[in-house]
Amino acid sequence: MIKIGIIGGAGYTAGELLRLLLWHPEAEIVFVQSSSHKGQAITKVHKDLLGECSLNFSEADFAAVDVVFLCSGHGQSKSFFEQNNLPENLKVIDLSMDFRLESDHHDFVYGLPEMNKAAISGAKYIANPGCFATAIELALLPLAKEQALKGEVHVTAITGSTGAGQAATDTSHFSWKNNNVSLYKAFDHQHLAEIKESLCNLQNSFNKAVNFIPVRGNFSRGILASVYTTCEWSLIEAMVHYQNYYLEHPFVVISDENTDVKQAVNTNKCILHLEKHGDKLLIVSIIDNLLKGASGQAVQNMNIMFGLAEDAGLRLKPVAF
């Protein structure tokens, strides 16, 4: 059994991790740490786990676990490493953005299995990708692999309110969010850097803009990304390239019908739909932002790191209604 610790256990991503790991066939949760809820029952915060979990929030014991998931806010993971002396053999999967970009100052591997599976399998530290980045990268990786990104990339993507985290803000308040849609961080979203880096890792020559318009949706979870760029392939050629690229990746599905968010919600899937319009290839990409965009992908990375089946504990059913 893989012995697991969770840091920052009160947020949405930690809640999803708990739901997955409690039923994972090879996982044992040893501790769940939360500085604001120490000693309380986990079900006081994650109330949907009532009857499923008897653990309390407790102090971290790094010597007792094989892997730690970092679920604290952005910027806190760097502080975590500065403040803690970790055992040499401890693996870490970080769900923040602190270590996603390549650097000489850390040895984190970018945890997108559909691009870096071999590196993930031998890694000690994993930087879990961002939710928008996951949806957009999976829409574009086959193009980059074939050196077929020739022009600018245009993306409009809408995300559910859980993408902003659990802390209350002016734009997450129900009376503002309900029956409302808004843009934010147009052309300047923090996930752009990792998207560009991933594309360039496959296609060194790619030097065009990725024009990204993020949208706040008035639903709880899920991402729909509409991605298009110029492409010389026919639709049939595009389908062949995409199917070949994802042939051995269990969570990416190519659909010949237009897709919608509910097909992916509550699953670790990414569903891609391709269309050709003149010289433009349109890729519609949908994921659950809390699963394939965060905690589900983190467990997928854990499975790869420990030599398990990639889909262990992750065969979840979508929400139909």
TrEMBL record:
Its main location: cytoplasm. Keywords: Amino-acid biosynthesis, Arginine biosynthesis, Cytoplasm, NADP, Oxidoreductase. One of its GO terms (molecular function) is NADP+ binding. Pathway: Amino-acid biosynthesis; L-arginine biosynthesis; N(2)-acetyl-L-ornithine from L-glutamate: step 3/4. It catalyses: N-acetyl-L-glutamate 5-semialdehyde + phosphate + NADP(+) = N-acetyl-L-glutamyl 5-phosphate + NADPH + H(+). SMART domains: Semialdhyde_dh (SM00859). The keyword Amino-acid biosynthesis applies. GO terms for biological process: L-arginine biosynthetic process. Its EC number is 1.2.1.38. The active site is at 131. CDD domains: AGPR_1_C (cd23934), AGPR_1_N (cd17895). It is found in: Cytoplasm. The keyword Methyltransferase does not apply. Residues 3-123 form the Semialdehyde dehydrogenase NAD-binding domain. GO terms for cellular component: cytoplasm. PANTHER family: N-ACETYL-GAMMA-GLUTAMYL-PHOSPHATE REDUCTASE, CHLOROPLASTIC-RELATED, N-ACETYL-GAMMA-GLUTAMYL-PHOSPHATE REDUCTASE, CHLOROPLASTIC-RELATED-RELATED. Belongs to the NAGSA dehydrogenase family. Type 1 subfamily. Catalyzes the NADPH-dependent reduction of N-acetyl-5-glutamyl phosphate to yield N-acetyl-L-glutamate 5-semialdehyde. This is N-acetyl-gamma-glutamyl-phosphate reductase. It comes from Ancylomarina euxinus. The gene is argC.
